[in-house]
Design brief:
heterodimer; A: 60 residues; mainly alpha; 0% strand; elongated; disordered C terminus; B: 260 residues; alpha+beta; Alpha-Beta Plaits; 4-stranded antiparallel β-sheet; Gas vesicle protein (chain A); GvpA (chain A); gas vesicle (chain A); Gas-vesicle_GvpA-like (chain A); structural molecule activity (chain A)
Chain lengths: 60, 260
């Protein structure tokens, strides 16, 4: 995982909008993804990559 | 070129050209596809990445997800510079141009209404965090330095810290509620997103408000100043502003879409 620059938009802010916002189209002409479960992504991919690079800030 | 059509946004026809160095998702430059009174902004993506099964897999791949999200955002950003785009949900893909046209025709009325509602407006994100460590050095007095001399002293200190934390938490909730009310009054619309997980954001502190506001461009400066002024109001509470964004959080016409 590349280190996100401070000036760059945080990925999490982007995903709030790209995966929860925007017009959702329905119908069989689309191959859209219906509802991406961000929690699942979070658990499977994000946590491991976050933990690898960054010490957890809330750890006692 | 073959492949599927990835649609970023729908807009009213606009005169300006898109930046020539814009690459889009999967490296293919976006182009416009006009159908009657609307324009879709489209690029080609390989079928292998965007069938429903492979997409689910790809979305678990953080590098792929980040690259795709940023490419999508860059196109929307470029559009925001020349028009008011109606962003589509990330990874909205059609088989071919004619599929895109059919979709535009079917949804024409909705799109035009939503574009009118968003016209000349941008989205601002406002987040409020409680600094978890602030209970100790904020109010509630200074914590004594050094190690506790006994188990009893340790417990006393811990209790004091918990109490300070609870007070701060309550102040933060009141603050966030007040701020949201003030900002929503100045905005045309507001949405609450779920608070962000610190593991994802890497931010310190707990996210108690994660809101989006739809604000007219010409009133945005005032809105930003208003947020800025609240920043140092309460010790231990941090306010963060992001934007301007295209109106992602306000693109849905159904009340449940984009709402928290």
């Amino acid at each position: 995982m590349t280190v996100v620059e401070r000036r760059e938009i945080a990925l999490v802010d982007l995903l709030d909008r790209l995966l929860a916002g925007g017009v959702v189209l329905t119908g069989d002409i689309t191959l859209r993804i219906a509802d991406v479960d961000l929690v699942r992504i979070d658990l499977n991919a994000l946590i491991s990559s976050v933990n690898a690079d960054v010490p957890s800030p809330w750890e006692d | 070129m073959t492949g599927l059509r990835y649609v970023y946004a729908v807009c009213r026809p606009f005169g300006a050209a898109l930046q020539s160095q814009l690459t889009g998702v999967a490296g293919d430059p976006p182009r416009t596809l006009r159908h009657r009174g609307l324009v879709a902004v489209v690029s080609h993506v390989p079928e292998a990445d965007f069938t429903e099964e492979s997409l689910k897999e790809r979305l678990e791949d953080l590098d792929w997800l980040a690259a795709t999200a940023r490419a999508h955002q860059q196109v929307i950003d470029a559009l925001t510079a020349v028009t008011t785009p109606l962003p589509l949900r990330m990874a909205t893909v059609f088989r071919d141009d004619s599929g895109v046209r059919v979709m535009m025709e079917e949804r024409e009325g909705d799109f035009l209404r939503t574009l009118d509602r968003l016209d000349g407006r941008v989205e601002w994100g406002v987040k409020v965090y409680v600094e978890e460590s602030a209970g100790q050095d904020g109010r509630g007095g200074r914590e004594p330095a050094g190690k506790p001399a006994s188990g009893r002293e340790y417990l006393l200190r811990r209790r004091a810290r918990t109490r300070a934390g609870e007070e701060l938490w309550q102040r933060a909730e009141e603050f966030a509620g007040r701020l949201h009310g003030t900002l929503a009054d100045r905005a045309d619309d507001a949405r609450l997103h779920a608070p962000q997980n610190p593991a994802l954001s890497g931010a310190t502190g707990r996210n108690v408000l994660n809101a989006a506001y739809l604000v007219r461009r010409d009133l945005s400066e005032e809105f930003v100043e208003l947020v800025d002024r609240t920043k140092d109001d309460v010790p231990g509470i941090r306010v963060e502003l992001t934007g301007p964004w295209a109106a992602y959080s306000f693109a849905g016409e159904n009340p449940e879409e984009g709402a928290a």
